[in-house]
Design a protein that fits this description.
- By secondary structure, the chain is an all-alpha fold.
- It contains five helices and no strands.
């Protein structure tokens, strides 16, 4: 940046090199680049924090709805004092259910295996998200330079699209976990 500013100043003083019209277009861009490069870390940090806050807020919102709907003052089924016939019927149903449990255990193991794989995938995705965020924050100054310089805006668009996508991952995961808690 310093070398570019020195070249612009030298060109303006001597009149050699860059034309006056190009200088008038270049100086505001250079000032913008200098400001954006120095603020790029803070801009990225604010975006990351907003994404994380939104993800946690969505998760908490769904979980609080689930707690509010399940905290009714319902009387327990077993404490209502029903007669002995219902107990015998219940025992018969339980014996039949025990036989079904053996069959259902195979399906349960499959569901548990899928759940474990899903949790591992979420862990992998969130770990990958963290690594990508670090890399994207490191190259953020270059992306902001690409935004201001002519004919390089496509690189900034690629960076911003990837950065936005990576930030949305946690928000979506928070939404899914909150909705899962509500459904459970």
């Amino acid at each position: 940046m310093v070398l570019v500013f020195l070249a612009v100043i030298y060109s303006h003083i001597t009149g050699a090199g860059i034309s006056n019209l190009n200088l008038k277009r270049m100086v505001p861009r250079l000032v913008t680049i200098a400001i954006l490069v120095n603020l790029s870390y803070y801009i990225c940090a604010i975006a990351i924090d907003l994404s994380n806050i939104l993800g946690y807020a969505l998760k908490e919102m769904f979980e609080s709805v689930g707690v509010a709907t399940s905290s009714g003052t319902e009387e327990s089924y077993w404490s209502t004092g029903f007669d002995n016939t219902w107990v015998q019927l219940g025992q018969t149903v339980m014996v039949g259910a025990a036989a079904a449990v053996g069959i259902g255990m195979v399906a349960f193991i499959g569901v548990v295996a899928i759940a474990v794989i899903s949790v591992l995938m979420i862990f992998f995705i969130l770990t990958l998200r963290q690594a990508l965020i670090v890399l994207l924050v490191i190259i953020a100054p270059l992306a902001f330079v690409a935004y201001v310089l002519p004919n390089t805006e496509q690189w900034f668009k690629r960076w911003s699209k990837m950065f936005t996508s990576v930030l949305l991952v946690f928000t979506i995961v928070g939404l899914i976990f909150g909705a899962s808690s509500l459904a459970a």
